[in-house]
Amino acid sequence: MTTPHAPPDRSVVERTLGVLGAFDTAHASLTVSQISSRSHIPVATTYRIVSKLVSWGALERAEDNKYTIGLRLWEVSQLAPRHAGLRAAAVPAMFDLRSTTRRAVLLSTRDGTEGICLESVSGNARPLHRSWSRGHRFPLHATACGRVLLAAADTTVQDELYGGDLRRYTERTVHAPAVLRDLVAHTRRQGYAVSDGELLNGVVEIAAPIHGGDGAVLGAIGLITVGTASTAVPDAVGPLLAAARRVSRSLSDLPAAPGDAVPSPRTARSRTPRPQGACA
């Protein structure tokens, strides 16, 4: 509750923190009324704060008029030494995949019509692009991880992306909506995606989905190398798919978040090695 003489900025900060503090492991999805009750903030005020937090990305709208913690808040939280369950499960497999292929490995998830790199492990090539370093966003249409995540997204997200401006990053970037639809459908059928010089010239990315126990796609694991798809893909697909299956098995008890095909991962208790350097 606001004290009678509390400065306005202090009141706003305290109430905003109260809204975020209403969420915990036992209350990961809440309605505005539930947030109001748990934070002791009037419903009308709670609704205004929740709307602002949704627009900023700290909260996300789920099913049944409920809200969950958003990926934007996760991005900020990466400044603190806390690791999510998806990362904890994936990092050992990422190191093994790097050792097997000697290529850069990345782990990603989707936020709306963009991808976010959750973690990366350096390969033997030169540094490539900041989009493949932890915490950075990347386009779904021009990357292999992006197409894997897009293939798992609902039709609303797909239609929004296809109807928007598909930016060309190189001459090879697929920017025609009809062609992209076909590529996403092909990705869904074959179980992996390939991007050949579409985000950066001469850079090949191969990616496969990571599934939870209910079959929902929780993220994508990808390999990045310099060269051409004809030389990079044949030797990489087998190890990549094996790594994706390994991570998926370890996440078999992780449920999907309400209303999202790519849910936010849970915090894990296990300790895993920390990758060194950027993704490539």
UniProtKB/TrEMBL annotation:
Pfam families: HTH_IclR, IclR_C. This is IclR family transcriptional regulator. One of its GO terms (biological process) is negative regulation of DNA-templated transcription. It comes from Streptomyces aquilus. PROSITE patterns: HTH_ICLR, ICLR_ED. Residues 10-71 form the HTH iclR-type domain. SUPFAM superfamilies: GAF domain-like, Winged helix' DNA-binding domain. Coiled coil: none annotated. Keywords: DNA-binding, Transcription, Transcription regulation. Residues 251-280 are annotated as: Disordered. It comes from the Bacteria. InterPro entries: GAF-like_dom_sf (IPR029016), HTH_MetabolicPath_Reg (IPR050707), Tscrpt_reg_IclR_C (IPR014757), Tscrpt_reg_IclR_N (IPR005471), WH-like_DNA-bd_sf (IPR036388), WH_DNA-bd_sf (IPR036390). GO terms for molecular function: DNA binding; DNA-binding transcription factor activity. Residues 72-253 form the IclR-ED domain. The keyword rRNA-binding does not apply.
